[in-house]
Please model this.
Amino acid sequence: MSQELPAAGSVLHRSVSAPGNQARPQSPEDDDRKVRRREKNRVAAQRSRKKQTQKADKLHEEYECLEQENTVLRREIGKLTEELKHLSEALKEHEKVCPLLLCPLNFVPLPRPDPVAGCLPR
Model:
């Protein structure tokens, strides 16, 4: 009794028995069970793919929102940087002519009450 090898690229099925084991014919119940199992697996695979697609869509939407927010924030940074530059220049110009900064009496240290002493009980 010679055993033929499967052709290259063919798939062995479980119904093929190993050497020394008796091949068991498929009953109609086994066939029905196999069909139901395959259908159940097909539905589960479809559900899994759909869930994966929904997750990817949600991530893409979140990415788009974050990109828009990032763009808005970068514009705001640019505006605030320009405002800081303008205000710094205005302050430098003001310091040149400010009478409070030019008066030497404004730099005399005044005695200040101790902030901790005001909090202690007497």
In short: Residues 28-97 form the longest helix (70 residues). Residues 11-17 have pLDDT under 50 and may be disordered. Residues 35-102 form one domain.
